[in-house]
Every structure is written in structure tokens, then in C-alpha cells.
Amino acid sequence: MAEYLTGIDLGGTNIKVGVVDQTGRIISKHSAPMGKPRTREEVLEKIYAATEETLRRAGMKADRIKALGIATPGTLDIAAGVVVSAANLPDWENVALRESVRKRFDIPVVLENDANAAAWGEYWAGAGKETSSMIMLTLGTGIGGGIILDGKLWHGFKDSAGEIGHVVIDYHGRQCACGNIGCLEAYASADSTVRRFVEAVKSGKSTNLERHVHEHPEEITSKIICEEALKGDVLSRKTLEETGFYLGVGVVTILHFMNPEMVVLTGGMIIGAGSMLMDPLKRVVEERAMGRSREDVRIAFARLGGDAGFVGAAGCALTVSGTSAS
Ligand SMILES: [Zn+2]
Hints:
The protein has 326 residues and is of the alpha/beta class.
């Protein structure tokens, strides 16, 4: 019987694939390096090979899989099952990804934006279980977002909803990678946190990492800053607390605008920073969010870590296969 689900999380560095049951429990998982594919066909072959390997590890053939979901970066046309464009993969424009994978495995396939899929994973099987509305922020190079309202992913009119990283928090502020000025992402992403830290050191602030910053600034990561902060480095700690403050400013806007039951935060930096980041964030919410928008709202860290993408992709496939497509 086709009772399991498969999720694929397509990244520029790795392809993560998992087989899960209908509650989101992981049966098997596998991560394959993307390497340096040169053509669209080579990317597709890597996706197929990683999926086949995961099924092999689960001891299953594709006929045990009810549906398959693919989480992918880039601009999507979800209804058409097409990746319109994605920066990190070669020749990856107007790719009919859903149809290609469906043909290969002969099972229903759905496509989902990677940030949305990760949010759905946390909602379905992670931190947001038993909520009805949840917003997730993913902090990495940038800040991705996913919105779940009344038990459904909110895609927006042209599948472009959830760009929470580009909420403007300072109209005259820092330059954002998107071209706008003062976006949340330009202050509070993992990369922006590193940038603020390096700037502070170069402007003369003292830290245990002083030499490292002056000699190899490109090696500084948010993980290193977290580690130093935990060891007692004052500037590292202050930098993370500022990130928490900026995130709080962004979360206040989210609460006012959407009044969700829960806000979930994820990303490598988040896991390390813990209360250094969460305490100032919650303080801002306490001080600035209006009336009932903050009442009983839960703000928490994600639970699934790097598995959220493929778990969520599988969950999206279940949602679709359980209703219309099959
Ligand atoms: Zn922006």
C-alpha cells in the first residue's frame, strides 16, 4: 500500500531527501552533495539518484510512496509545477520540475518554495504542532519566511508571500541585498549579524576575536560569534542581543499584521544563540506590540533543524494528495 511520503529539499550545496510516515515521522533520510552540475539534466539526475538512495535505505520501492514533495529555492509557479528561476543552479529557468519527477517515479508530485516547506514542516511535525496559525523566520544568508493561516500555507496572489526579511524597519537604514533600504534582513540575518560585528571591531571595539577579524574577516561566522559570546566575550554577546532586538522589531510588525498564534525561529545561528537572542526579542515584543496581538502568543525556536525542508515538502505532498491530486 502507498502509505508513506517522500520529501526532497533541493539546495545549492546539498539535496536532502527523506521518507516519512503520514504523521511526519522520519523513516529514512539521506543527504547528497549537489557538486557542480553543468546542465539541467545533471541536476535532475542528482535529484533522482538521491531519491532512489533514500528509498533503498528505507527498504521501499516507489510504489509504497503516496506522494512526493519538492522544496526548492527560487521563483516558482506552484500551480503549474514550474521553477521560473533559481540563482544557484545551472540552466534552471522554466523547469517543469513537477512533471519530470512525476514521470520518473510515477507518483503525484507537488512543488513548494523552500522557506514555505520548512515552515510547513515545523507546523505539521515540529514546534508549531497543534497551532492553527504560525509564522516562521529562517535566518541564514538572508531571512526567509513562511506563513500558515488557519491550517493552510499562504502563498499570496503570485506565490510571493512570506518575504518577511524585507519588511522595512529603518527607511533610511542599511542597504539590503534586494535593492531596498533598511530591510529586517539587512540587520538580523546571520550574515548581517556578522557584518555588524566586523564593523564594530573595525571601528575600534575590543573583543577576543580582534586579531581574527583584522587578519581574516571573511572567516568570521555567526557560529563563531555565538561561541565567543558563550565564553563571555562582551562584544559578541552585544551583537547577538542587537540581532534579537531587530528581530523583535520585525516580530512586532508580524503580530500587528497577522496576529498569529505562534512565531517560530530557525537557522544555525538561532540554535547557538538561545536566550541571548530570544530575551531581547521578547522584551521588544512586550514593550511595543499592541493590545491583544501579543496576548498568549508563543515565540519559540524550531525543532526539526535541517530536516524541516524535506519533512515539510512531504507534508505538502500529503496535503495535496489527500485532497485533489492523486
Ligand atoms: Zn530587502
